[in-house]
Amino acid sequence: MTNPAHERIEKLVNANDVVLFMKGTALFPQCGFSSRAIAILDHLGLAYETVDVLQDMEIRQGIKEFSDWPTIPQLYIKGEFLGGSDIMMEMFEAGELQSMADEKSLKKAEA
């Protein structure tokens, strides 16, 4: 049996090079972890899409099952689940996120 939430999530993940499932929006994050994740992506200068899980309970629950990861935010790059804000922070500090962005030729945000 197919899960409609999982199908929607899969489409979002596959349609965008960088997508962040978060609480709130890029302009108005609704938790500190989501705010930190946005700050990292903005610092890297990457173009990204966000999905506000607070606006959609089906997605909010579905994303946890989809990734088998219990917390939000969740970052996907080129269809691959990377992790939440703690993992993003570790990868950012180690320079791994920048390297990945370069290797995968991720689009830069428009100025």
TrEMBL record:
UniProt keyword Iron, yes or no: yes
Keyword Iron attached: yes
Pfam families: Glutaredoxin
Keyword terms, alphabetized: 2Fe-2S, Iron, Iron-sulfur, Metal-binding, Redox-active center
Chain sites annotated for binding [2Fe-2S] cluster: C31
GO molecular function per UniProt: 2 iron, 2 sulfur cluster binding; disulfide oxidoreductase activity; metal ion binding
Sequence intervals crossing the membrane: none
Recorded family membership: Belongs to the glutaredoxin family. Monothiol subfamily.
UniProt-listed NCBIfam families: Grx4 family monothiol glutaredoxin
Name this protein carries in UniProt: Glutaredoxin
